[in-house]
Amino acid sequence: MPDAREWSREDTARLVRVPGPEDDKYSRGVVGLRTGSPAYPGAAVLGVEAAWRSGAGFVRYIGEGRAADAVIARRPETVVSAHAAGARVGAWVIGSGTDAASRSPEAEQELRALLDGSVPVVVDAGALDLAPGRRAPLLLTPHGGEFARLARQLGAEPGDDRAVGARRVAQELGATVLLKGARTLIADPDGTLITVEAGTGWLATAGTGDVLGGVLGTLLAANSGTDASIAEIAAAGAWLHGHAGRLAAGVGADGGEHGHPIVALDVAEALPRAIVDVLA
Question: What is the per-residue pLDDT across 235-247, written as a single tens digit (0 to 9) for each?
Fold first, then answer.
């Protein structure tokens, strides 16, 4: 991809914000997550865990029932409420662990309100179908199958060229698209393309995308008010997530170590080590 920018450790370090003596929990970044469901409560836990582990100063979780109970049991620092109305956050993460087919009218109304707000929204999984026509700054995070469905919703075939497809969808929606894969692609509506190759094949396991959502929400909230683009922040989050995966799996920096199987929570728990490594 001769016209694509390849993201690096040094690029990532610029966007990992180290708190200073004047910072408090709000200035470090407030992340709101409306994720998980009775069927998939773990998605809520993984995203919240990742948001905390990647440096959020304050995390709000919006939900009820099994998902909310699981979040509080794992991360009692989290502020949990049933509805998003009135919650002040620097970035939202929505859709992980949800299914559009089982979405209630009330849930859809609340999601649409977030998607028409003024703060950035990371849109994953069960909320991707609501992205067209929205006004908030959006970062869409589909995997291959979700991306194909989104492209067809827009009246286009995804095609075999991932870069062309990502650019086309980003331009059509006026949103940033992070297309997950062994090589992650980030496309901006203006045609900018960034590639990230910091991960490992061991990341191909359930729940790691939920972890990525939490990381992205934290970096978006922490970098609000800076001149960094959503695409650059997304690339930093993808790089950090991939590096945490390598650390968790024991993959050597030179590729000489094959590593070992991991689960998604291992990746979230490795994020502080990844941040130390990036800033060293």
Answer: 999 999 999 999 9
